[in-house]
Design a protein that fits this description.
The complex is a heterodimer.
Chain A: E1 3-6, E2 11-14, E3 19-21, E4 23-26, E5 32-38, E6 44-50, E7 56-59, E8 62-65, E9 75-77, E10 86-94, E11 99-102, E12 106-111
Parallel strand pairs in A: 2-12
Antiparallel strand pairs in A: 1-4, 3-9, 5-6, 5-10, 7-8, 8-9, 10-11, 10-12
Chain B: E1 4-7, E2 10-13, E3 19-25, E4 31-38, E5 42-49, E6 56-57, E7 65-67, E8 75-78, E9 87-94, E10 101-103, E11 107-111
Parallel strand pairs in B: 2-11
Antiparallel strand pairs in B: 1-3, 3-8, 4-5, 4-9, 5-6, 7-8, 9-10, 9-11
The chains are: A mainly beta, B mainly beta.
Chain lengths: 112, 112
């Protein structure tokens, strides 16, 4: 069945460091791919998305490219800030009923 | 998280008690979902409703029931709460195929 596997955390980085969070997926069709962010005590918010192969999603300095050949959608940011501290979830949507499948989440802490 | 309202935000139940978690959306979307979030497990789908009048089981439906009262509301019921149901519950909605999911703020449930 469809699934998402993402890099386990927690991840701790210094401010201005480069961030990569790996995400790979398994899907039978042509899914859309998403990154969601969850700040403490809040629900999930969409960070970026890509709906077809080779699309690049970007938002707030974060980027991810939909790679069909490697079934990946890795999240990157060139220079993280303390305010980026949160839990990041990779997700895919495919199939009837628009089912969403989420990874287990990666906790990021950025220290000054 | 505009558009999806969950009530209550916090709840403590005794084992064996019942309760209903409410979810309402104001974006006229067809698909609605209930997830539970547990540490290290990511989000797991409990039930979903692709349209008014239809519901389907997700990954972890045991111990829960749902009701899609109308297009706007999707409730989750615990008939006899168990400590294993201690979790954070999120309601979400999706508009059309492969668009993003919008989440509520969550309900933090503790069963003692």
């Amino acid at each position: 069945g469809d699934s998402v596997t993402q890099m386990e955390g927690p991840v701790t980085l210094s401010e201005e460091a480069f961030l990569t969070i790996n995400c790979t997926y398994t899907a039978t069709g042509y899914p859309s791919l998403f990154w969601y962010v969850q700040y403490p005590g809040e629900g999930l918010q969409l960070l970026l998305k890509a709906t077809k192969a080779d699309d690049k999603g970007s938002n707030k300095g974060f980027e991810a490219t939909y790679r069909k050949e490697t079934t990946s959608f890795h999240l990157e940011k060139g220079s993280v800030q303390v305010s980026d501290s949160a839990v990041y979830f990779c997700a895919l949507s495919a199939g009837t009923g628009n089912q969403f499948y989420f990874g287990t989440g990666t906790s990021l802490t950025v220290i000054p | 998280n505009a558009g999806v309202t969950q009530t209550p935000k916090f709840q403590v139940l005794k084992t064996g008690q019942s309760m209903t978690l409410q979810c309402a959306q104001d974006m006229n979307h067809n698909s609605m979902y209930w997830y539970r979030q547990d540490p290290g497990m990511g989000l797991r789908l409990i039930y979903y409703s692709a349209s008014e009048g239809t519901t389907d089981k997700g990954e972890v439906p045991n111990g829960y029931n749902v009701s899609r009262l109308n297009k706007r509301e999707f409730s989750l019921r615990l008939e006899s709460a168990a400590p294993s149901q201690t979790s954070v519950y999120f309601c979400a909605m999706v508009g059309t195929v492969n668009t993003e999911a919008f989440f509520g703020q969550g309900t933090r449930l503790t069963v003692v």
